[in-house]
Amino acid sequence: MGGPKKPEQERCDAILAAAYEIALAEGLDAVTARRVATAAGISTGLVFFHFHSKDGLLEALLGVLLDGTLDALSDSDLARLEPWDRLERMIWVELERLVEYHAAVELIFAFYFSRRDDLFRARIEASFARYLAAFSPVCREVAAGTRIQGDELAATVVALVQGASIQTIRNPESFNPEAILATLRAVRPA
Amino acid sequence: MGGPKKPEQERCDAILAAAYEIALAEGLDAVTARRVATAAGISTGLVFFHFHSKDGLLEALLGVLLDGTLDALSDSDLARLEPWDRLERMIWVELERLVEYHAAVELIFAFYFSRRDDLFRARIEASFARYLAAFSPVCREVAAGTRIQGDELAATVVALVQGASIQTIRNPESFNPEAILATLRAVRPA
DNA sequence: GTGGTCATTGACCGGGTAGTCAACGTAGAG
DNA sequence: CTCTACGTTGACTACCCGGTCAATGACCAC
Questions:
Q1: pLDDT above 80 for B160
Q2: Which class is B8-52 in CATH?
Q3: Does A74 contact chain B (CB < 8 Å)?
Q4: According to the model, what pLDDT value does residue A75 have?
Q5: Which residues form the HTH tetR-type domain (chains A, B) (predicted)?
Q6: A3 CA: distance to closest CA in chain B (Å)
């Protein structure tokens, strides 16, 4: 028994990397303490030593997923554009990211729907809510002086982007962000 | 051993009803042969006698879900309306249905994301595809004579409706279909 | 009645799971 | 060098799962 020691951070990262790989390749159900331990080249007990429980491991894994896929939304360097152009640009960037990270986004949805308690949902909900927060300002600008209500537009945009994420998961190859963008451009208020 | 006999149909319905109830109340993971049998007041063996395997039971349950929630889309009695009014109306009806059946829709998504093989996904995909088929004709009519492309509009509408279904699941109480409809009306082409 | 068909039971099996723990190495402090 | 603190191991427990099956009863045709 016993074996070489590594710093906590390094071990945790290795375990999470193994869990991430298994989840991507075979889905959330395949993420068991044993399989993760084997994939990381350590014993099962060590997983619990570092993450206390399986839920602890999954929470950490969810954190990795959310940090890597949903938390880059920003319109800081777009301030010079007209509001509608900025909105279009933000949507475009987001749709491209959804295509790129569709496997990770699928895992996030798998987390969301695998449980009904708040353990995972609260975290995911917070990330989703950031969508609304990110789109709201520009939507209000776009709506100003039109018949459109800013908050209603923001709700619609969020629904559209999230629906697009489902399309991306359903069929990553055939999903075409350009179709949605083209429609938006065509209904652009004068 | 042995016990009162019931016709196959009646038994299957009772088992499915029990499974449905458990799934709604506690999620898909809670649907085990034992729990379903207990809830239906029968023995575990009988579940397998009637459905052969757990996957068989889940497939049947998914069928019940899809029949009850996604398969009523139709625009037959709306032919007299202008294309755009018809599209609005269809979206409205669908959004209201999503709110009403949000628990069942959530279960459908749980089915979708619980597995990555085609056992459940193919069935759900077929139902989702019917969305596109249902919206395509009216979208083409709406697009005729405008800068909008019919098929692109249809893809956008499907994404919007499916995104709205996620919003409904996230927060059934606060989700407001009217917000989306109002935005659509505001961007309605002349 | 009698025989046969079939729904029904529940104990049972093999297997995978989360989580525990006493024993054991290893490294660093004194 | 020794002692202590802690990372590490893997066998172990308790549990629940899907699935099987011989025994059993209910029902029907004759």
A1: yes
A2: mainly alpha
A3: no
A4: 61
A5: 9-69
A6: 37
Sign of CA dihedral B122, A99, B168, B22: positive
pLDDT in tens, B69-106: 866 666 666 678 899 999 999 999 999 999 999 999 99
Residue to substitute from A29, A58, A153, A183, interface B, most B β-carbons within 10 A: A183
d(CA B62, CA B70): 11
Pick the CATH number of B67-186 from 3.90.226.10, 3.20.20.70, 1.10.357.10, 1.10.3210.10: 1.10.357.10
Q: What's the whole-model pTM score? A: 0.95
Q: Among the listed ranges A71-85, A105-119, A155-169, B95-109, which one has the minimum average pLDDT value?
A: A71-85
What is the structure's pLDDT at B6?
A: 81
Query: Quick check: helix, strand or coil at residue A157?
Result: helix
Domain spans, chain A = 8-52, 67-186
Q: Please provide the DSSP assignment of B20-79 as one string.
A: HHHHHHH-GGG--HHHHHHHHTS-HHHHHHHHSSHHHHHHHHHHHHHHHHTTT---GGGT
Q: Is the minimum CB–CB distance between B94 and chain A shorter than 8 Å?
A: no
Report the pLDDT averaged over residues A129-146. 94
pLDDT at A77 over 70: no
